[in-house]
Design a protein that fits this description.
mainly alpha, about 0% strand, 10 helices
């Protein structure tokens, strides 16, 4: 039933079916029509092709646990090992055996078989091709829409009414002419996308797949160590005293137009914190604007940058009217 439902979805999601229902407009050019079809196939592939390795490893992992190939003390490590092998995915965070990430999928803890989704992923294209042939479709398999075909409907009805009276292989043979699963129709369905990807990957020199045991996977060589815990941060060292050292220029004050030599000055690379004291520069008088939320202009008539200055007002002995502490970011 999973495969039958997915088969019908392949027809009703085509561009021609959407246009017939008024849910999609006609392409304005030949190239636009091509790229619409490529984008459509790409979205279908992300749903159906990408799901195949996951639906396969789900039950393979379960069966390996039942067979004793996965030790109890390595339940999580073996899960991520399988995910990496079949999907090319690694955990974004370090994991340990205190975690059980496979259990995040309901079918694992509930002991529900998942292989039916893998089988449906293959059979839906095989059944789709058989129904398209019965409907007399001519053209790419990805553009077939059996909606309105009496012949395709009669074939599907004859097979569905068999129910469980015959083995599934017999029902599949009545529908497709074969008792075996065949991935050929799936490859045919995505052939336009596959050809386009071949050309695009060759043009850009894209490396395909992932190298198991190489540095291209998870940023580390060999098998991923999911049990590695993040290093503890190093204790902070002694802070440097404020102010310039002997023989060094004082960096406080407005930024200079240029850095050392001919190197342009980068104001974003340094932040000056001016603490109130006897030698600290006093802020220029400020004229508040009407709403009191900021200043109209900074020094020398330059527009005031509100993001460059933060005022922290600390309560004084007589209330909140104490002098603010200014943290200046150089403007330039």
């Amino acid at each position: 039933m999973e495969a039958i439902g997915n088969t019908l979805a392949l027809s009703v999601s085509t561009q021609s079916h959407m246009r017939r229902l008024g849910l999609a407009g006609k392409a304005t050019s030949f190239n636009e029509d091509i790229f619409r079809n490529i984008n459509f196939l790409y979205s279908v592939a992300l749903d159906k092709v990408v799901h195949l390795p996951f639906s396969y490893l789900m039950d393979k992992y379960r069966y390996d646990v039942f067979d004793g190939k996965v030790p109890i003390e390595k339940l999580n490590a073996k899960w991520w090992e399988a995910v990496k092998k079949f999907q090319g995915i690694c955990s974004p965070l370090p994991r340990t055996e205190e975690d059980f990430d496979a259990g995040a999928k309901f079918h694992i803890p509930a002991d529900q078989p998942y292989i039916k989704y893998f089988v449906a992923g293959i059979l839906q294209f095989q059944i789709h091709k058989a129904l398209c042939t019965a409907a007399g479709h001519a053209g790419p398999l990805s553009e077939c829409d059996i909606d309105g075909s009496a012949a395709a409907g009669k074939l599907l009805e004859d097979v569905m009414e068999l129910g469980s009276s015959v083995p599934w292989q017999a029902a599949l043979e009545k529908l497709t002419g074969s008792t075996r699963m065949d991935a050929g129709p799936m490859l045919e369905y995505f052939e336009p996308l596959s050809d386009w990807l071949d050309q695009d990957n060759a043009q850009w020199g894209t490396t395909l797949g992932w190298g198991l045991g190489s540095d291209t996977v998870c940023g580390q060589g060999g098998e991923a160590d999911i049990s590695a815990k993040p290093d503890k941060p190093e204790p902070a060292g002694p802070t440097k005293p404020d102010g310039p050292g002997p023989g060094k220029p004082d960096n406080h004050g407005p930024p200079k137009p240029g850095g050392n030599g001919d190197k342009p000055h980068n104001a974003a690379e340094e932040i000056h914190e001016v603490k109130p004291g006897t030698d600290a520069p006093k802020p220029a008088p400020e004229k508040p604007i009407a709403n009191g939320l900021g200043k109209q202009n900074g020094p020398a008539g330059k527009p005031h940058d509100a993001a460059a200055e933060v005022h922290e007002v600390k309560p004084g002995p007589d209330g909140p009217a104490s002098r603010p502490v200014h943290a200046h970011r150089p403007r330039g």
